[in-house]
Amino acid sequence: MKITALVSLAAAVLAITDASPINRRPHGGVGHSVAHKGHSIPLTRNPHFKHNTKAQMAKLNKRYPGINILASGSGSVPLTDAPTDLEYYGTVSIGTPAQDVKLDFDTGSSDIWFPSSDCTTDACKKHTQFDSSKSSTFKKDGRSWNISYGDGSTASGILGSDVVSVGGVSVQQTIGLATDESSQFGSGPSDGLFGLAFDSIESVSGVKTFMDNAIAAGVLTKPVVSVFLPSVRRNGGTGGEYLFGDIDTSKYTGDLTYVPVSQPGYWQIAIDGVTAGGKDLGESSQGIVDTGTTLVIVSDAAAKAIHATIQGSTNDPNNGWLVPCTLKNSTDNISFKLGGTDFNVPLADLAYEDLGDGSGNCVSGVQGGQDLWILGDVFIKNNYCVFSQTDSPSIGIAPLKY
Ligand SMILES: *[C@@H]1O[C@H](CO)[C@@H](O)[C@H](O)[C@H]1NC(C)=O
Ligand SMILES: *[C@@H]1O[C@H](CO)[C@@H](O)[C@H](O)[C@H]1NC(C)=O
Ligand SMILES: *[C@@H]1O[C@H](CO)[C@@H](O)[C@H](O)[C@H]1NC(C)=O
């Protein structure tokens, strides 16, 4: 769920609580406030991006014929942090010659889609529209396609296939070309979504995901996508990246704890405990690690237990859980136990966004209403996550280092 502008907070919070695990995701970008316009942070190329990897590998291939080292690599996609840590997107190239679209990378869904040049709705027209007739590698598919998210937003159109390229890693990929989009997408900062969950939750069954295809083609050094989400509070929202095919060990402290995926579909894991105010709250659940959801969403009971440890917090029927904005100065944490390790979320990040009504209250970064909990960006921007798609998939997690 992407909680966005102040004006849409109430609706957005309600939408999260409606999020069914099936058509789950309140998608990104519901009504960005005017106050935020022009504040978007320019793309910064990641310093770890290796332009010359392919040339180096070609040399190695000549030396070791028979071993196709060229086939394997990694690709880094620098991220833009849509203020304030609302949604993170990066540039993806589609077709030949490449047409660039800005996509919201989403580990909570599996489809890759963006507006088609055939789409005439207002929402489409506000974004980059892909023109398949200008791509020599585009292949028709013909099947119709549609997706709906937990906030009621929808998109539909037809499937096609083309070269999809992230940070230099390319595969021929089935894509959704939207010819109709609900209005919520018009105001969102990204053109569309790049799903990173498993193929079993593709909208059209039988479609393989980008990671499925990249792994099968052997173009990745490791079958992983590693995520570093920055935070405006901690580092100005700069340097974020999705690293396809490798792990950036400079981005975290200590070792990664690999938590087994309990049910592939979403990136679903067991959450074995929650600590807040220095005590174990006796709460546990299955949950998903979802880059496409802005906040952390837990059950009503867990949200109540967490906020009971935060003085001055209230549950407002219109805005959900509120906390005093003074929490921004706190150095304390709450933590989630995953794979035997406690992972911190600073209380400072629970003061997610000032209500702006002079009450001194902030919308809490933790909300209730989900029995399948969602560890969204409020969690991920504090903990490096490696989505590892081996035969026994797991998520490697370690505290983030800025
Ligand atoms: C959406 O797609 C599903 C699965 O392909 C299909 O059964 C359904 O009829 C479609 N719905 C609409 C409104 O097009
Ligand atoms: C945080 O502390 C500083 C210094 O005491 C103060 O000026 C500021 O208003 C505080 N911020 C919040 C959100 O309470
Ligand atoms: C809160 O978490 C951070 C990051 O894990 C840690 O460095 C810090 O010491 C924790 N604060 C407290 C009061 O334990």
From TrEMBL:
The keyword Signal applies. Its EC number is 3.4.23.21. GO terms for molecular function: aspartic-type endopeptidase activity. Residues 1-19 form the signal peptide. Disulfide bonds join 119-124, 325-362. The keyword Disulfide bond applies. This is rhizopuspepsin. Gene3D superfamilies: Acid Proteases (2.40.70.10).
